[in-house]
Amino acid sequence: MSRHESLYALLAEFAEPTALVRAAHASRKTYRNVDAYAPYAVDGLAEALGFRRNRVPLVTLVGGILGGVGIYALQWYTAVIDYPINSGGRPLDSWPVFIPPTFEVTVLVAAVAAFFGMLALNGLPRLHHPIFNAREFDLASRNRFFLCIRASDPAFDAERTRTFLASLAPLRVIEVPA
């Protein structure tokens, strides 16, 4: 096994969020598999990393539509086909009665789809991530900002990437074992 295969990523540690955003902008010009870790939301970081699309709203919409259509179809089937009851001369397909449960189930299924869709699109639950192999990474939840360039990137070369990260003036560059 070569040294490159035993390496998950190179990690650059920064003390300030502005330095992390500048480093993310610079690294996206050469590398594609770039991640950033910060203890709080940093303005402009998502754009610097190239995040443009969010599919959670689409998953929520599809879940809501499926839930609404499904519960309406269930109510219609039970009232018209399965167990028709002529109550007071009303039509079997009395759609105004179906609206409140349809609305409630639409909202419920949309919320559940949003929750599980967010988890799935983020690749969660993931009980262990190789980035946790870096001893210093526990600072990412307290007061440090990290930029990670994964070894799976097509442009990744351990020495060249280390030199590039060092040119961004981090506090240190850390090897993350696989």
Please give a quick description of this structure.
This protein is of the alpha+beta class and 178 residues long. The protein has 5 helices and 4 strands; from the N terminus they run βαβαααβαβ. The protein has 2 domains: 7-52 and 130-177, Alpha-Beta Plaits, CATH 3.30.70; 56-121, no CATH class.
Give a description of the structure.
The protein has 178 residues and is an alpha+beta fold. The chain folds into two domains: 7-52 and 130-177, Alpha-Beta Plaits (2-Layer Sandwich); 56-121, no CATH class. Helices cover 46% and strands 13% of the residues. The chain contains five helices and four strands. The protein is rod-shaped and about 80 Å long.
* Major sheet strand order: 2-3-1-4
The description of the largest β-sheet is: 4 strands, antiparallel
State the CATH topology of the largest domain.
Alpha-Beta Plaits
**CA-to-CA gap between the ends?**
12 Å
DSSP strand content: 5-15%
Q: Quick check: average pLDDT?
A: 92
Shape: rod-shaped
Count, helices? 5
Q: Give the domain tally.
A: 2
Could you name the CATH class of the largest domain? Alpha Beta
Cα-based radius of gyration, to the nearest Å:
25 Å
Strand tally is 4
Q: What's the order of the H and E elements?
A: EHEHHHEHE
CATH architecture of the largest domain: 2-Layer Sandwich
